[in-house]
Amino acid sequence: MSAKTTTSILYLDGVSVSFDGFRAINNLSLVLEPGEMRAIIGPNGAGKTTMMDIITGKTRPDEGEVFFDGRVDLTKHDESEIAMLGIGRKFQKPTVFESHTVEDNLVLALAGPRKAIPALFHRQTKAERERIDEILQTIRLTARRDELAAALSHGQKQWLEIGMLLAQDPKLLLVDEPVAGMTDAETEETARLLREIAQTRSVIVVEHDMQFVRELDVKVTCLHEGTVLAEGSLDQVSGDSRVIEVYLGR
Amino acid sequence: MPVLRIFRLIFILIAVMAGPARADDAALRTMLNGLANADGFAAIEKIVGDIAATGDPKAERALGALSSGDLYVRKADKTVLIGKSKTGGYVLSDPLTGDVAGEAKRSEVEKIKVNNTLRRVVREALGGLTLASVDPRARLNAAETIFKSGDPHAIPTLDAAIARETDPAVKERLMEARASATLKAQAPVAETTAALETIAGRGDREALSLLKSYEAGAQGELKDAAGAAIAKIEQTLALWAAGQNVWYGISLGSVLLLAAVGLAITFGVMGVINMAHGEMVMIGAYTTFVVQDLIRQYSPDLFDWSLPIALPLAFLVSAGVGLIIERGIIRFLYGRPLETLLATWGVSLVLQQTVRSLFGPTNREVGNPSWMSGAFQLGELTITWNRLWIVVFALIVFALLLYVLNRTALGLQMRAVTQNRRMASSMGIRTPWIDAMTFALGSGIAGIAGVALSQIDNVSPDLGQGYIIDSFMVVVFGGVGNLWGTLVGAFTLGVLNKFLEPYAGAVLGKIAVLILIILFIQKRPRGLFALKGRAVEA
Amino acid sequence: MITRFLAGGLERRINILLAILVAAAVLVPVLHLAVPASSPLHMPTYVVALVGKYLTYALLALALDLVWGFCGILSLGHAAFFALGGYAMGMYLMRQIGARSVYGNPDLPDFMVFLNWKELPWFWHGFDHFWFAMLMVMAVPGLLAFVFGWFAFRSRITGVYLSIITQALTYALMLAFFRNNMGFGGNNGLTDFKDILGFNIQADATRSALFAASALALALGVLVTSALVRSKYGKLLIAARDAESRMRFLGYRPENIKLFAFTLSAVMAGIAGALYVPQVGIINPGEFAPANSIEVVVWTAVGGRGTIIGPIIGALLVNGGKSWFTGALPELWLFALGALFIATTLFLPKGIVGAWEEWWKQRRERDGRAPMMSARNPIESPAE
Ligand SMILES: Nc1ncnc2c1ncn2[C@@H]1O[C@H](COP(=O)(O)OP(=O)(O)OP(=O)(O)O)[C@@H](O)[C@H]1O
Ligand SMILES: [Mg+2]
């Protein structure tokens, strides 16, 4: 372990994974500092979602190191443990509990004990209620708190999922394509929301929408065929000839 | 009797070819006529021994007549002749040539009596004589007879026979027979040990019992040698037993494969849980019954063709029923597997009850055509024809299915639809039609499985119920969506089952297999040959 | 804490159901025992026994609904837990026969004497005591469900795969119990019971008491289940049904959530089986038949899964129908049952209760009132 791992919130080094001989991630290295927000771009199939699968324990890497918070080896933990360590994730396809109300979705996401038996006797505290009201405000779903999540629009589901991440109160957020299917105004709102979140937490955002990435105004990493192609400010990266070649087009 | 006629022909041939042998006829005749004066069974036995020692096949007729009690002494001239009874007397014939030699009244001849011991002696002597037969099958049988009796007197005859034998298989049997005789002959240690080895090399049950009885009477070094030989045979026999188990396993596996392969299409390829799959098999079996019934009534000669006739019909009937089910019920339930499961269970109840009302609740008799009945021996294995045909049939069905799926347009479209329905339909594939065809294909395959299963199982309305759980186990164990997995799964489970049976009994063996599968699925939830990728995780 | 947990689950519909059950537990014995046989209000013995049996079926259906309706686990092996509970009760009842059996052996049940056994197998010890038998009624199904579920849920076996292996489980158990040397009476099972807790099992008073016990057990089941599904845990159950991976990334362990429900459900099924056996007087391996488990599924589906009263209504209706059919048109029963399976899945996917709720909601909307917040009612099409 190098010195970097002790200070960075997320540290990936030489990570590779293959599916039936196909290398989805190839010797990928990435370091995220505490409080940093990072945007990840790259063509379809570059391995962005797979990278998140590795960080959250869904996929085990064939080789390489994955450390969280400078000391925790993530390859040794499963999804729930990693979530409890403080890593939250929004899926590429919005995934909420469709037959629960918006409010109940947040209740379930709220930080707290995760065991079955305590859940039987759990009663909502005042603090919890306030926190939920607050999040509902943030994600602009206060008016629809009692409706089933299934009834929300695609964009609203995205927001609800982000709200659930907030309720979970993680140290690191992984957000996969949060503005897919959103209007320009909504996209702008989301960018603002993410920037706000990033003030207290580390965030990784995967997105294809360049306008959105520009609004985030953070360091950008471009993935291609499972490895880092370029890293730096958006202007630097989008000026890189190889990035133009494989992703942005001329 | 044709056999006798052939024998006679052979004898004539031998007589013609072996001219010089004619000279010996006189000696043989003298010996035979000695029987007329023989006093008591012991004397007869000695003469039989002498005759056998000549090794002359011409004595065969006489000895055969002796053992069946057809040999008589003509009181008038004390000659020995064969007599066939007719009203009031006998037709006499020459014991060596078989030429008719007049007739006689009852009082003019006297029967040469034999008892059981003597009959055995004669049989053994005959064994020795047929060693010289031109028919290798007859020589083989003769060697077998001597092997079982182990008559030490036969050794010289055997040596002669071995020396002139050209057929290696017969020669081997002869050597074994000689070894068996050697054991009884109190031969020197070295020779006996060699004989023990030869017998051990034969490795079957007969050799085992021979050695066991020898071991019981032997002492010292030879007893040890016999013990070693027994151990060797037991090992060989254990191998054969294992082989028999493998065969039973393959046979069971082919049944499982037949029952499951249609399911591998509907469940594996389409993802439809068809609990009425067993009933499709049952319908196929009943189609066979109806076909046979009609044939029996109208054209019994065609009976051997009943299965080839039933196969396409069973396919069509089951496929038709499948088509109705798909169009009527399942198509409304795509994407809701658990509901499909329930609805098709309902269908299975209705189908069972329909068949019960039409054909009655009891078993229906479905016959085996002649080419499906009987058995043959392969080494120590007994293989029944119906099981063998079913194994062959299962493999053919599997190969055909593989061909349809991988090499035909329908198969290509089927795979396209199952992998990405929307994309396939936007490329102009008529997805509803493909769904219906796929389901009908799976059901039709179940129907022809029913034709095969009607040959080995009771044809009753609950026929299908007996297979449904096993079929699902096979598909799940092999890996859903993979035909090869179904093949391997079926045979693995079949063989596993049959290997557990001797230790645990049939029921416990089956339970053990079920538990093993349950545990296996825990380890590999997607079966032996899992499809990988994201599609299956959704 | 427990009372708060239980009180938390009350709702009007449930209250009415509970009231009916408690009333039945009191009234039926009165009508059966105290009202003279000549009176039209008298309840004959066979009705008491029949309805008592239905109530145990209802409890079984409710148990299945807890895992299927609320948690999406379609168990095709719930009859196995029912039968295991029944066998535990049957073993107690066998021990009560004592020397009154046909062979008159005070130490061994008849079938063991018949098999030439010399002493009681170890697993029969303790069943002389009612408390021990009752413990086993819950412990055996519970333990089996726990072990099975622990393996299955941990390996993330879901959907039809799980259904198929639960079916294999009950099938394997059926084969096992059919064996004579398992020590459970082979295919005859356990029967010829004499008395329970010292009371003649055939007596009217005992039958009434068993009826009351069944009604109260069902009431308790309803109380516990409804409290459970209204708690935060209940929300987790539904969450595990709909989006297991989302749960996992929130830090929950869906396998544990499911395991708790599965085990509890098996215990409920075991209790139902234990109440069933003394009322029908026999338990045999046929109870493990896979078809039985699937029938339970159809009761639940007809009534409406994912609701508390649905499975109870379904169990009573379908079994009432079955009794009528097997009396009047026996050969048509399987047609009717089969058609019921098909019709329910095609036309009534949410069952009677679900359909009624929908109709009610639509009527209220048409009347221009604020749409009812059915959101709290977790019966929306569960993802499978
Ligand atoms: N479980 C899996 N099994 C097989 N292949 C997989 C699996 N997961 C990912 N892949 C493959 O790995 C590659 C990378 O996929 P990934 O989803 O990470 O790309 P992405 O960068 O997120 O693309 P997009 O922008 O389209 O979301 C793809 O080719 C994908 O098919
Ligand atoms: Mg992606």
Please provide a written account of the structure.
- The complex is a heterotrimer of chains A (250), B (538) and C (384).
- Chain A is of the alpha/beta class.
- Helix content of chain A is 38%, strand content 24%.
- Chain A has helices at residues 4-7, 48-55, 79-85, 102-109, 116-120, 126-138, 154-168, 184-197, 210-216, 234-239, 241-248, and strands spanning 10-19, 22-32, 37-41, 63-68, 72-73, 87-90, 172-176, 202-206, 219-224, 227-232.
- Chain A has a six-stranded mixed beta sheet with strand order 6-7-8-3-9-10, with helices on both faces. Chain A has a four-stranded antiparallel beta sheet with strand order 2-1-4-5, covered by helices on one side.
- Chain B has three domains: 3-134, no CATH class; 167-237, no CATH class; 240-374 and 409-483, no CATH class.
- Chain B is 70% helix and 6% strand.
- Chain B is built from 20 helices and seven strands.
- Helices cover 67% and strands 2% of the residues of chain C.
- Chain C has 15 helices and four strands.
- The two termini of chain C are 34 Å apart.
- Chains B and C meet through helix 14, helix 19 and helix 20 of B and helix 6, helix 7, helix 12 and helix 14 of C.
- The complex binds adenosine-5'-triphosphate and magnesium ion.
- Adenosine-5'-triphosphate sits between chains A (19, 24, 42, 44-50, 92) and B (532-534).
- Chain B: Belongs to the binding-protein-dependent transport system permease family. LivHM subfamily.
Question: What does the secondary structure layout of this molecule look like, with pairings?
Answer:
The complex is a heterotrimer of chains A (250), B (538) and C (384).
Chain A: H1 4-7, E1 10-19, E2 22-32, E3 37-41, H2 48-55, E4 63-68, E5 72-73, H3 79-85, E6 87-90, H4 102-109, H5 116-120, H6 126-138, H7 154-168, E7 172-176, H8 184-197, E8 202-206, H9 210-216, E9 219-224, E10 227-232, H10 234-239, H11 241-248
Parallel strand pairs in A: 3-8, 3-9, 6-7, 7-8
Antiparallel strand pairs in A: 1-2, 1-4, 4-5, 9-10
Chain B: H1 2-17, H2 22-37, H3 41-54, H4 60-67, E1 71-74, E2 79-86, E3 89-93, E4 100-105, E5 109-111, H5 116-130, H6 136-149, H7 154-164, H8 168-184, H9 189-202, H10 205-217, H11 220-269, H12 277-298, H13 306-328, H14 337-359, E6 375-378, E7 381-384, H15 385-407, H16 409-419, H17 421-426, H18 431-453, H19 465-478, H20 483-523
Antiparallel strand pairs in B: 1-2, 1-5, 2-3, 3-4, 6-7
Helix pairs in contact in B: 2-3, 3-5, 4-5, 5-6, 6-8, 7-8, 8-9, 9-11, 10-11, 11-15, 11-18, 11-19, 11-20, 12-13, 12-14, 12-18, 13-18, 15-16, 15-18, 16-18, 19-20
Chain C: H1 2-7, H2 12-34, H3 45-68, H4 78-97, H5 110-114, H6 130-154, H7 159-178, E1 190-191, E2 195-196, E3 199-200, H8 204-230, H9 232-242, H10 244-249, H11 254-280, E4 282-283, H12 290-303, H13 309-328, H14 333-347, H15 351-366
Antiparallel strand pairs in C: 1-4, 2-3
Helix pairs in contact in C: 2-8, 3-8, 3-11, 3-12, 3-13, 4-6, 4-11, 6-11, 8-9, 8-11, 9-11, 12-13, 12-15, 13-15
The complex binds adenosine-5'-triphosphate (ATP) and magnesium ion.
Pfam families (chain C): BPD_transp_2
Transmembrane segments (chain C): 14-35, 41-60, 67-89, 130-153, 160-178, 209-229, 257-277, 332-356
Keywords (chain C): Cell membrane, Membrane, Transmembrane, Transmembrane helix
